[in-house]
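Record type: ASSEMBLY
Status: queued
Input:
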Amino acid sequence: MRYRVNEPAVAFHEVDREIIIIHLESGYYYNLNAAGSSVWKLLAAGHEEKAILAAADDAKTPEKSLEVSLREFINTLREEDLLTESSRDLPPDSHAPLSGWSDLPVCSKFTDMQQLLLSDPVHDVDSKGWPHIKKNPE
Amino acid sequence: MDSIRPHSEFLPSSGEPYIFYRRMLAYYKTAENKNRLRERFISIGSLRIRLAFASLELYDAFCPALAHIQLADSIDSDLTIHVCDGSTEASPFPPPPWTEEQIQRRGDIAVPGSGLRIFYSGFIRSLSIFCAEEKSAVYWVEKAADLPAFEKAAPFRVLLHWFALTAGRMMIHGAGIGTDAGGIILTAKGGSGKSTTSLLCLKAGLGLAGDDYVMLDTETPLVYSVYATAKLEPEQVDRFFPDLKQDIAFAAANGEKAVLNLNRLFCGKILRRFPLKAIVIPRISEQEMASLEPLAPFKAVLAAAPSTLLQMPGAGAEELRRMADVIQKLPCYILNLGRNMASIPAVIRSLCAA
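Status: finished
Output:
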């Protein structure tokens, strides 16, 4: 399985080896630690999930649950609508270049800005038509 | 004078959205012929903007917030904003060439390849269209009388943001506080103490470039003033600034904040621009005295960027990159707002002098 970043709904940028992601439709925003940012960049570049998981076998961490953590991490990115499946036709990808691995990938989610998007601009028009809106839409 | 640089999103205008834009200009012209043209010229640094009002109500509603950057004479402008309302019954409103599905979550309308940027606010019932190629924009609102106070406090901010992008600048959700020699951007989500801090600093002798929005040149980096207004919860006015109560420009209604006209209250303390020295994130704390804590750049971006991007229709990866680039070049701090509010201005003054 390959993925792509769900752009333009999602904006992201790397600062100090950590990725900051803003989902512009849900109003949620996220912070990936350095390990998570490494995985994100591989996924965003089109590397196959199984190749990243294979690379995790070789990676050295103090934890034994690296592969499980990695699967959960990628599932989180999918469930949060940050990544979508990609049909990009790329050469087979047996081993992703995962390096500098020293920690488990973590995706921290922040929900405190969502109220900025609560006033939904999609509207019900009244009998005069667009752009006149119903006073009391059902 | 800064050059107006091309932006990758601004393509030659074409297609049905462009025809709609031309019809909106014709709609504006009908209103201008009916109601008489009123002009104002403003400058935001080197950017010169002509405001052409075909509505007296909108002229009266929007000009006070911009009075401090108003020019005495007419000038060649880098942008003309054509402003009208829905009272022009003689001219039918042009049918839009987009479907409801094209209206995005923040009100921007996806018209790729048209060379236009369009924003529809279902809450205010306003439409903003920006055509970079023609240095022209249209602002329409259905009923000028129904404008909420926050729109009067910060008019045309979406159009000004899109225009700013063409000149290496962007609108930032935050307060600009300092002196002519330098200052800070205080940024965080609403309710974090930005406006209270801004007014405390003004009363303590510091200058202000804006309470809620400023324009930032992300290359220099210089902060420019756009609006000379401040928004406060009515109870904040009662608690901290009872002496300003009689100067509320737009009274709070329907749960809105009260709007103060700072140009009138603090004439001479509104800064037109200043060099940006630091990014500060306010945090309400139980400490007695205000204090600063260094903040890692990625945490500053995480605290500062979402409120700007989520409130700005169409903002995305480009704005996030620009904000992150600026923030990484500057010292960043948490400002612990102590119980002794009088201690806040001195802390901010120390950053401005750094």
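Annotation: The mean pLDDT of chain A is 79.
Annotation: The interface with chain B takes residues 7-8, 11-13, 15-16, 18, 20, 22, 24-25, 27, 29, 31, 110, 112-113, 116-117, 119-123, 129-133 of chain A (CB under 8 Å).
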